[in-house]
Amino acid sequence: MADDEDIFSTGLVNSLFALQLVDFIQNEFKVTVDNEDLDLDNFLSVDAMDSFVTRKLGSVAA
Questions:
Q1: Is the overall model pTM greater than 0.70, yes or no?
Q2: pLDDT of residue 62 exceeding 60
Q3: What's the rounded Cα separation, in Å, for the pair 61 and 54?
Q4: Are 45 and 5 in contact (CB under 8 A)?
Q5: In 10 A of CB 25, how many CB atoms?
């Protein structure tokens, strides 16, 4: 599986696991996932999540 592959369309992630994934990201990277962050594009692939966390960490440091 490539880091840019859609994890939802492959069936690796369902709606319940998506909630667990958001919780994991918040706990692991100490970021807050706000309501406006709950956009599928932020969690569609490993690359998308990496970009999302990088943006969130950048906004925390600013």
A1: yes
A2: no
A3: 11
A4: yes
A5: 20
* Of 28, 30, 51, 57, nearest in space to 39 by CA: 51
Q: pLDDT tens, 15-52?
A: 889 999 999 999 999 999 999 999 999 999 999 999 99
Q: Which residues contact 18 (CB under 8 A, 6 or more apart)?
A: 8, 43
What SS3 string covers 27-47?
Answer: HHHCCCCCHHHCCHHHCCCHH
C-beta separation of 33 from 26 below 8 A: yes
Compute the distance between CA of residue 41 and CA of residue 62 in angstroms, rounded to an integer. 23
Distance CA 59, CA 30 (A): 12
Q: Scanning the structure block, which residue is given the tokens 């966390």?
A: 53
